Amino acid sequence: MLTAAKLRKQFGPVLAVNDVSLESAPGRILGVLGPNGAGKTTTIRMILNIIEPDGGTVHFDGVAFSEAVRNRIGYLPEERGLYRKNKLLHAILYFASLRGVHAAEAKRRAYTWLERFNLLSYYDRKIEELSKGNQQKVQFIIAILHDPEYLILDEPFSGLDPLNQIILKDILLELKRQGKSIIFSTHQMDQAERLCDAICLINAGKVVLEGELKEVKHRYGKNAVVLEYEGNGAFLSGLPSVKAAHVYENYAELLLHPDALPDAILPELAGKLALRKFEVLQPSLNAIFLEIVGNAGAAARAEKTA
């Protein structure tokens, strides 16, 4: 069990992380979510002892961070951290040696993962010759090659095309079934919704929503309507029963007021849209995220104006 309690970090006048607490258990995936600049990366770096917190504690199975604990962790940073002139296989084996993996075993594991990520033919290429997506895959291989108990991934899907996102998703679920404790940060709510058992949503350095994903969605109730249609849906946000609307081309997700009945909006759509789909369901994590973060931003702007 990884436990972080009341982490706090200030950079000059900016309180980047304000009493953030979270837990990650074996065989579970925790999503640390939030907009850019929310404090996700700073929180992760404090957990890994890269940045010393101004306050709070971090424990791994009740033990404070140490060199022994470090080798039980696999870390994928948000930034590219590879030596660009190194060849791909050499880079992987070098980092494996730092984690105490025997050279022959490291090479065997490296070839297995390179094949899994369709990188085997690139093994002799320099890092700088790889695309951003392939560099991301190499960094992920480095993070897991020593078979860590804890896996901490900062924006792991960054730079990956849809096919490689599926490959990474499948691997993360496999690692979860193996009992790994996984934390990943992201602002991609669709990935978090598909993968996470629990979430910790951070905004402006503070935890604004946390808990089991199923419970979080249940908390918001079955007050969302998904529409697919032909026509111009711009008017949907102005309907009296609609609390918030996320309208796209021929698709919309409407969050209704608590006392609104979904069927009651159907007459208001008649003659304006040609409906292909009308479905009542729990709001998506993306809609919840937009509501919480958007409302917080609006409140902050109003306070600043006042």
Give an overview in words.
This protein has 306 residues and is an alpha/beta fold. It folds into 2 domains: 2-217, P-loop containing nucleotide triphosphate hydrolases (Rossmann fold, 3-Layer(aba) Sandwich); 220-305, Alpha-Beta Plaits, CATH 3.30.70. The chain has helices at 40-47, 67-70, 88-98, 103-116, 132-144, 162-177, 189-195, 213-219, 266-269, 285-305; strands at 2-11, 14-24, 28-33, 55-60, 63-64, 73-76, 150-154, 181-186, 198-203, 206-212, 224-230, 242-248, 251-256, 274-281. The strands form 3 sheets. It has a 6-stranded mixed β-sheet, with helices on both faces. It has a 4-stranded antiparallel β-sheet with strand order 2-1-4-5, covered by helices on one side. A hairpin with a 2-residue loop joins strand 4 (55-60) and strand 5 (63-64). The chain is globular and about 70 Å long. The chain starts with a strand and ends with a helix. The mean pLDDT is 91.
Which terms summarize this structure?
Alpha-Beta Plaits, alpha/beta, 30% strand, 2 domains, 306 residues, 10 helices, single chain, 4-stranded antiparallel β-sheet
How many individual helices? Answer: 10
Largest sheet: 6 strands, mixed
Written as H for each helix and E for each strand, in order along the chain, the element string is EEEHEEHEHHHEHEHEEHEEEHEH
- How many β-strands, per DSSP? 14
Distance between the termini: 45 Å
Per CATH, the architecture of the largest domain is 3-Layer(aba) Sandwich
| Biggest sheet strand line-up | 6-7-8-3-9-10
| Oligomer designation | single chain
Class of the largest domain in CATH? Answer: Alpha Beta
CATH topology name of the largest domain, in short, is: Rossmann fold
Count structural domains.
2
